């Protein structure tokens, strides 16, 4: 694709702000000639940060001044009402105006979702946006949603999530008919609450490649390309997996440092450990998309470093190139029409 892709970056969001966003932007521009980036934030601060990295403002890197910043612990309603010139709001406004194809922010998740939904609105047929990300799994990775945008979802919402997730997997992963699983407390049909059981009935008749219920451990086995759940369950599952990964890494370091023999064993095992770390490195999967909006918005982890934030930008670029919102709109309209005809 030869057309230039423009991405707006909330340069003041996250735990590190410009110190991560600016070098990430420069890294992207060095290796992606067809990309233009807009740094949104305090112009004086951004210019100072650019000078530190010897970055020069040119036709592919511009600054859009924003006088306010949304705090990481700021209530979403307050950010929406009182921070109309925040770097987050201005970046999303650029998407709304068509000046940028997507927005990437490491800022306050609740404020980002509330602002994006207010400014961009949802696609026709989508009641609620959902947060989707990739989870490392055997044989590759699994896309999972919702991860916290909706703490209580109806069966119809779960169906909408499934359609959006399937479109995302098909477009970004080149999977012709991605398999979709519904997260549950068991694989048997009698298991689960009423919403999940009803969602299963809808999905089984939807035309999606629905493979049935999946359990928590199936997420990492690669049983389904897309795993669907409500935001409460999804967020708990995600944070639990992150905690398990952390404790395993902690115990491995502890054991390898136990004595001289284990330190020597660590040296021998270093190539394997290095490859393992690379394969499950969470930075490779950074960038959660807010699906269901009339525009593309990605949430980077608040503590993301340059590698991780750059990954989120790369994902945003790919979503723009593939036209994910349009694909979701077309697929959902088709599936709803088919369901009405039955």
Do you know the CATH architecture of the largest domain?
Answer: 3-Layer(aba) Sandwich
The strand order across the widest sheet is 3-2-1-4-11-10-5-6-9-7-8
Distance between the termini: 39 Å
Based on DSSP secondary structure assignment, what is the total number of beta strands?
11
Radius of gyration computed on alpha carbons: 21 Å
Task: Please report which band the strand proportion falls in: under 5%, 5-15%, 15-25%, 25-35%, 35-45% or over 45%.
Answer: 15-25%
Nearest-integer average pLDDT: 91
Report the principal-axis shape: globular
CATH topology tier name of the largest domain = Isopropylmalate Dehydrogenase
Structural class: alpha/beta
Order of helices and strands: EHEHEHHEHEEHEHEEHHEEHH
In short:
By secondary structure, the chain is an alpha/beta fold. It folds into two domains: 1-126 and 292-342, 3-Layer(aba) Sandwich (Isopropylmalate Dehydrogenase), CATH 3.40.718; 129-283, Isopropylmalate Dehydrogenase (3-Layer(aba) Sandwich).
């Amino acid at each position: 694709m030869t057309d230039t892709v423009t991405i707006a970056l909330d340069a003041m969001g996250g735990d590190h702000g410009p110190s991560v966003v600016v070098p990430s932007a420069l890294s992207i521009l060095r290796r992606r000639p067809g990309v233009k980036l807009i740094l949104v934030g305090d112009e004086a601060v951004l210019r100072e940060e650019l000078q530190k990295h010897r970055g020069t403002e040119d036709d592919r890197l511009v600054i859009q001044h924003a006088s306010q910043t949304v705090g990481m612990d700021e209530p979403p309603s307050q950010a929406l009402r009182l921070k109309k010139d925040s770097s987050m709001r201005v970046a999303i406004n650029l998407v709304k105006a068509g000046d940028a194809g997507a927005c990437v922010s490491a800022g306050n998740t609740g404020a980002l979702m509330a602002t994006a939904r207010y400014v961009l609105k949802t696609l026709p047929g989508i009641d609620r946006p959902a947060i989707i990300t990739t989870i490392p799994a055997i044989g590759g990775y699994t896309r999972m949603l919702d991860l916290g945008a909706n703490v209580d979802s109806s069966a119809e919402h779960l169906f909408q999530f499934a359609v959006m997730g399937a479109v995302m997997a098909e477009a970004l992963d080149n999977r012709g008919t991605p398999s979709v699983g519904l997260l549950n407390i068991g694989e048997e049909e009698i298991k689960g609450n009423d919403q999940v059981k009803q969602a299963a009935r809808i999905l089984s008749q939807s035309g999606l490649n629905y493979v049935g219920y999946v359990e928590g451990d199936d997420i990492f086995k690669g049983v389904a390309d897309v795993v669907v759940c409500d935001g409460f369950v999804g967020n708990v599952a995600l944070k639990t997996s992150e905690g398990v990964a952390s404790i395993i890494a902690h115990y491995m370091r502890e054991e390898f440092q136990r004595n001289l023999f284990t330190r020597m064993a660590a040296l021998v095992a270093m190539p394997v450990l290095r490859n393992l770390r690379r394969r499950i490195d969470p930075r490779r999967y950074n960038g959660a998309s807010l699906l269901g909006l009339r525009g593309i918005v990605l949430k980077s982890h608040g503590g993301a470093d340059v590698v991780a934030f750059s990954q989120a930008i790369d994902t945003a670029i790919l979503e723009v190139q593939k036209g994910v919102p349009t694909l979701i709109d077309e697929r959902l309209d088709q599936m709803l029409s088919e369901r009405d005809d039955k």
